[in-house]
Amino acid sequence: MPTRAITAAVDGTPESLAALAWAGREAVRRGLELRVVHAWQWQPHAAITVDRDGQAQWARDSLAEAARTVTGRHPDLQVSTEVLEGGPVATLVGAAAEAETLVLGSRGHGAVVGFLVGSVGQQVIVESTRPVVLVRAEDDPAGEAAGREVVVGQQGGPEDSAETLRFAFETAAARGASVRAVRAWTLPPVYAYSPASMKLLDDAGGLEPYEKNALADALEPWRERFPQVPVTQHVEMGSAGQVLLSVAGRAQLMVVGRRARRTAVGARIGSVAHGVLHHAHCPVAVVPHD
Length: 290
Description:
Blueprint: E1 5-9, H1 14-30, E2 34-40, H2 52-73, E3 79-85, H3 88-97, E4 99-106, H4 112-116, H5 120-127, E5 132-136, E6 149-153, H6 162-175, E7 179-185, H7 195-204, H8 207-225, E8 231-237, H9 240-246, E9 251-258, E10 261-263, E11 266-268, H10 271-279, E12 284-288
Parallel strand pairs: 1-2, 1-4, 2-3, 4-5, 6-7, 6-9, 7-8, 9-12
Antiparallel strand pairs: 5-12, 10-11
């Protein structure tokens, strides 16, 4: 399979330019090509005197200017650009399918709900078959300094979180960073107890030791594959979103899995991913695992 590129989508906004800068640094670290795309659709309007060709040229010029900012910082980085004509969701989902990672700008805390609910960003996250990283306009490269962790949420069994852990360990290895793997747990309702589940808990020595063993089992293959990556196991009682956010202050990147929920009003991401995207100050990677 050909090597995939890191793909950044830009539209001239400060958040998309921050996403482009993040994507450029990540491409350099991983030794990958950077692909810079702009989703463009002809929108005739009585108040706009520029014709279709003029708008298309403006999109190409803006894209080229954005790409030059990256090549100026990373002269040896291979950068390609492409204007993708069509609806923004379909074109960006298509671009993501060909990418190692798709990087988008997030509008920050004030407008993040608008970014997630019924927006292009949410639909791309929901429909993408590849990881999507969201970067805020105020993202500071200094946040990638040594000592800051790649924080990843783990839930379920080893197979349930394999892709999420893979992304976290690969990213940490490329950055020389450590991984903090977080598993949250809550007391199950009384009706969930069964003789079989009680035996499992008894064998493990209780609920918390059971959760610690489950996290250790999920991490084992990735520890073996990336022995150079220091790992901290973090098991805490509470909701997954709250526990992840409690350690977000030490993170240079938060990595969460995505399980899209289909509803009568369309697909929505799960509550954990939604909460982390809403509140975390660092970039957030959403990795599909369904």
